[in-house]
């Protein structure tokens, strides 16, 4: 399964390099591609900034080649342009050489070329960045970031890695970033997303057919990629599923309550909280629409109508939780595991992974970075969130939601989605319990694990955005889920 048909597909710099080469093989010259890329940036600048002195900083590779095109485009339209070029001309590509000749003689670099500009164009490094920015280039980046002039970055802000969004050494803070053909993961992953400013995507003559050969596996999370369960007028509440949320003990019941309410708001037909009698007393004083049961989980699950489970929020790291998790996995229901359901297996992750691999693959895990690091000790987060989540999904057999301001959802089949709609105020205590409930509620309605996880993360972000600003607490979120679902539908 791969994302070859969508505008929302994301390409790593390596995959983008293949798209360039395949296009060139198919008859579009590199000169044409570079010309289209540079003109697209030039056009963006003319449309978005007032005419004023602009300095174009051109690096040693084809990103710099784009800069020559931009310089010519703006000069032709009467902009005062200064252009500097770094690197050895003997190593230029034919296309870069072609456009350098059109430009003429670049100036020798001096700091006032940056200091005196009203607008900077960063065409130092793009897809070819492969090591930390250091030395003279680091000084240039620092100076560019210190000036008040906005910077338009070509393809990627210099210093941001296109595949991971991580900063190599130091990076340009751009006002806008213009990229080509398809966005790159680094435009959505942090800190890259913040360094890009506004991201604009432009087409440069690469046919989307090349994606069939590249078979990209990563996509920007968006309602176009999944279908929410449809409301059926004649539908019975059981046709919308019955989700069981496992409660924590007395004194720790709030998390399960938040998950249960969220599952119901996400459209689950029925939601039952299962827990010990003392815990149910606490729930009973708060809840009306949620049912309460105090049987052992294995007995409760003899009733086939319970088709989805949420285990973990507020459950506590205990033998009881450990066994509830294994019971839930063995029941082969749609299952969401969060928080303590994961924490219970830190010293024994193989047990949970092996159990999941025996199921029909309907399990979602929602670790934040800390939980992820403890459960997946052999997976390096520093190699990038997408690759880490993908590896964890493969190891565990579960769909992984690696939570954060740039949550990544990855499937054991290799697909991954990057979410970018979460507002900063969503980072609040209990917001993970709400996410767990939304995903569990969607699973109860029959959405398969990966789609439910992607949709849940998106709706969670939208719900928080609809709150509108700081001051939101997690209990505000469940009632915002229905309107978020309506927008995402
Ligand atoms: N291909 C196409 O058809 C099209 C491509 N397009 C454009 O090309 C861009 C990709 O071009 P690219 O592959 O030449 O990479 P680019 O980012 O210019 O840098 C490579 C150079 O940087 C160097 N270098 C790397 N890191 C460094 C560091 N930290 N510090 C110092 N040096 C460092 C590296 O040096 P080397 O490793 O050889 O020493 C090499 O010389 C892409 O982003 C898009 O803008 C568009 O025109 C559309 C058509
Ligand atoms: K750049």
Describe the protein's architecture and organization.
The chain is an alpha/beta fold and 489 residues long. The chain has two domains: 9-220, Rossmann fold, CATH 3.40.50.10260; 236-488, Ribokinase (UDP-N-acetylmuramoyl-L-alanine:D-glutamate ligase), CATH 3.40.1190. 39% of the residues lie in helices and 14% in strands. The protein has helices at residues 13-25, 30-48, 62-76, 94-103, 112-115, 135-146, 192-196, 210-214, 254-265, 277-284, 297-300, 319-330, 340-343, 349-357, 369-375, 385-396, 431-444, 449-467, 481-488; strands at 9-10, 54-58, 81-85, 119-123, 151-154, 176-180, 198-202, 218-220, 242-246, 270-274, 291-293, 308-311, 334-337, 363-365, 399-402, 408-410, 416-418. The strands form two sheets. Strands 1-8-17-16-15-14-13-12-9-10-11 form an eleven-stranded mixed β-sheet, with helices on both faces. α17 crosses α18. It binds ligand NPW and potassium ion.
Strand and helix map with partners:
Elements: E1 9-10, H1 13-25, H2 30-48, E2 54-58, H3 62-76, E3 81-85, H4 94-103, H5 112-115, E4 119-123, H6 135-146, E5 151-154, E6 176-180, H7 192-196, E7 198-202, H8 210-214, E8 218-220, E9 242-246, H9 254-265, E10 270-274, H10 277-284, E11 291-293, H11 297-300, E12 308-311, H12 319-330, E13 334-337, H13 340-343, H14 349-357, E14 363-365, H15 369-375, H16 385-396, E15 399-402, E16 408-410, E17 416-418, H17 431-444, H18 449-467, H19 481-488
Parallel strand pairs: 2-3, 2-4, 4-5, 5-6, 6-7, 8-17, 9-10, 9-12, 10-11, 12-13, 13-14, 14-15
Antiparallel strand pairs: 1-8, 15-16, 16-17
Helix pairs in contact: 2-3, 2-4, 3-4, 9-17, 17-18, 18-19
The structure holds ligand NPW and potassium ion (K).
Catalytic activity: (6R)-NADPHX = (6S)-NADPHX; (6S)-NADHX + ADP = AMP + phosphate + NADH + H(+); (6R)-NADHX = (6S)-NADHX; (6S)-NADPHX + ADP = AMP + phosphate + NADPH + H(+)
Domain YjeF N-terminal: 16-212
Pfam families: Carb_kinase, YjeF_N
């Amino acid at each position: 399964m791969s994302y070859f048909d969508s505008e929302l597909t994301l390409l790593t710099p390596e995959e983008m390099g293949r798209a360039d080469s395949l296009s060139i093989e198919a008859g579009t010259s590199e000169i044409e591609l570079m010309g289209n890329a540079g003109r697209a940036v030039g056009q963006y600048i003319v449309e978005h900034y007032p005419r004023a002195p602009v300095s174009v900083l051109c690096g040693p590779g084809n990103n710099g080649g784009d800069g020559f095109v931009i310089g010519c485009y703006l000069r032709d339209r009467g902009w005062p342009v200064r252009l500097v070029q770094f690197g050895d001309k003997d190593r230029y590509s034919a296309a870069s050489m072609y456009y350098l000749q059109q430009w003429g003689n670049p100036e020798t670099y001096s700091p006032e070329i940056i200091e005196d500009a009203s607008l900077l164009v960063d065409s130092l490094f793009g897809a070819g960045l492969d090591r930390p920015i250091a030395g003279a280039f680091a000084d240039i980046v620092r100076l560019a970031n210190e000036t008040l002039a906005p910077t338009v970055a070509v393809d990627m802000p210099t210093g941001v890695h296109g595949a991971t969004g991580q900063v190599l050494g130091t990076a340009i803070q751009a006002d806008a970033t213009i990229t080509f053909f398809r966005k790159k993961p680094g435009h959505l992953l942090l800190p890259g997303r913040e360094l890009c400013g506004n991201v604009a995507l432009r087409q440069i003559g690469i046919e989307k057919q090349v994606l069939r050969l590249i078979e990209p596996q990563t996509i920007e999370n968006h309602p176009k990629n999944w279908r929410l369960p449809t409301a059926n007028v004649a539908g019975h509440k059981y046709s919308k599923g019955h989700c069981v949320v496992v409660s924590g003990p007395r004194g720790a019941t709030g998390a399960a309550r938040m998950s249960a309410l969220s599952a119901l708001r996400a459209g689950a037909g029925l939601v039952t909280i299962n827990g010990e009698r003392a815990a149910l007393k606490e729930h009973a004083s708060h809840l009306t629409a949620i049912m309460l049961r105090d049987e052992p989980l294995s007995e409760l699950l003899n009733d086939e109508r319970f088709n989805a489970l949420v285990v973990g929020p507020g459950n506590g790291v205990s033998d009881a939780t450990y066994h509830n998790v294994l019971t839930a996995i063995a029941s082969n229901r749609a299952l969401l595991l969060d928080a303590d359901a994961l924490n219970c297996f830190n010293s024994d992750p193989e047990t949970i992974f092996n159990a999941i691999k025996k199921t029909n693959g309907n399990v979602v895990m929602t670790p934040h970075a800390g939980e992820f690091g403890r459960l997946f000790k052999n997976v390096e987060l520093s190699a990038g969130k997408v690759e880490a989540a993908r590896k964890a999904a493969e190891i565990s057999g579960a769909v992984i939601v690696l939570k954060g301001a740039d949550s990544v959802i990855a499937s054991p089949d290799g697909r991954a989605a990057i979410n970018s709609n979460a507002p900063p105020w969503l980072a609040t205590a209990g917001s993970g319990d709400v996410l767990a409930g939304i995903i569990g509620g969607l699973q109860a309605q029959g959405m398969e694990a990966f789609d439910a996880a992607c949709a849940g993360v998106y709706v969670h972000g939208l719900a928080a955005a609809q709150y509108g600003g700081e001051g939101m607490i997690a209990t505000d979120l469940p009632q915002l889920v229905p309107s978020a679902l309506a927008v995402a539908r």
